[in-house]
Amino acid sequence: MSDRKPGTVSQILINGRKYLGDEDNWCQHKSRIATGMWLRRHERFCATGYIAHKTSSRELSQKAMEFLSNASWECYGRSPIYVNDNHGHEAVLRVYDKAIFMALSKGV
Questions:
Q1: What's the mean per-residue pLDDT of the chain?
Q2: Would you state the pLDDT for residue 56?
Q3: Helix crossing, 89-106 with 80-87: angle to 10°?
Q4: 67-108 pLDDT, tens digit each
């Protein structure tokens, strides 16, 4: 799954939530392959890594990151990177759910 074709901020977040919903596609810290070895190719993503690597439009990527950050601060009082690395998979999904709600509410 890829957001390489620019769409809407909401769609980027929805696709990210769907992709990261499978815990095998998610990781803490930096992108990894399934064996845990570091690689330049990204098969597993952290909360922000999905948006950074799967969105071709810088403008849409930045807006999606803003919604993710605002949702993270609202839910946990911390950045999405901190939440990803310290609160775990379910917390990341909660942040994505909140970000999607916020983006849809703004119509973006």
A1: 87
A2: 86
A3: 150
A4: 999 999 999 999 999 999 999 999 999 999 999 999 999 999
71-80 CB contacts, 8 Å cutoff, 24+ apart = 71/95, 71/96, 71/98, 71/99, 71/101, 71/102, 72/47, 72/99, 74/98, 80/47, 80/48
Return phi, psi of residue 51, to 5°. -65, -45
Structure tokens at 20: 């990261």
42 occurs within a structural domain: yes
- For the chain, the DSSP string reads --B-S---HHHHHHHHHHHHHSGGGB-SSS-B-TTS---SS-SBB-HHHHHHHHB--HHHHHHHHHHHHHHHHHHHSS-HHHHHHHH-HHHHHHHHHHHHHHHHHHT-
The residue type of 69 is S
Give the total number of structural domains in the chain.
1
Q: Which domain holds residue 42?
A: 9-106
